[in-house]
Amino acid sequence: MNWTQLPLGPLQTNCYILSGEDGECIVFDPGAEGEKLVQWLNENRLQPLAVLLTHAHFDHIGAVEQVRQAFNVPVYLHKEEAEWLTDPSLNGSARFQFGEISSQPADHLLDEEESLTIGRFSFRLFHTPGHSPGSISYFFEEGNAVFAGDTLFMGSIGRTDLPGGNHEQLLQSIHNHLLTLPEEAIVLPGHGPATMIGDEMERNPFLNGF
Predict the structure, then answer these.
(1) pLDDT of residue 1
(2) GO molecular function terms here (predicted)?
């Protein structure tokens, strides 16, 4: 299995493509530049099986509809943000200068911690609210990597000043779920470079003394 990081849009939101040797793949957080993303997938002869969203802020969902329609795949999202895809006032796009963003509702709504298998890809799901109420982290155990969205970054954590954000809740999510993963697990965040659980435990100033 391989993962590819594709920063997209004005906020350089990381879209991740998790692919197998047979060309099947999972698309995480297609945030913008849908035409470019679809072209990249076609050029690399990849066949998406699903779109998995870590949360539904506008910079993570801008290309959802283009990917869904191009490949006829389902979209997964936590139930706490079920209305966010269709509502610019909820996903935040109405507040910023990038234009209002919306799409059709998710095909599957996820609920609390559970496992999820799509094709050959299996994930452990952690509900990690704090940055947003429906944030999900997807742990791909086979590759020892967690797709963490805007929950945890290299040397930082997600912002909590947007509607539905909660600083204490975010810290609890990180400590109760992400920091229980193996220290060598790779953290694939919504922005910026990848990191490792062990490195963040030792060096992240936001986690010290919690």
Answers:
(1) 76
(2) hydrolase activity
What is the rounded average pLDDT of the residues 105-115? 89
2-95+109-203 placed in CATH 3.60.15.10: yes
Encoded tokens for 117 = 């298998």
Tokens 């998995």, residue located: 52
- The Cα 71–Cα 139 span in angstroms is 24
Instruction: Return the beta strands (E) in 43-176 as ranges.
Output: 47-52, 75-78, 108-110, 114-118, 121-127, 136-140, 145-149, 152-153, 156-157
Residue ranges covered by each domain of the chain: 2-95+109-203
Query: Looking at the predicted structure, is the pLDDT value of residue 103 above 70?
Result: yes
84 Rama class: left (phi>0) / alpha (psi -120 to 50) / beta: alpha
Res 210 pLDDT > 60? no
Is residue 162 very low, low, confident or very high in pLDDT (cuts 50, 70, 90)? confident
DSSP string, 12-62: TEEEEEEE-TTSEEEEE---S-HHHHHHHHHHTT-EEEEEE-S---GGGTT
Indicate the SS3 state at residue 145. strand
Tell which residue, 2, 1, 6, has the closest CA to residue 190.
Answer: 6
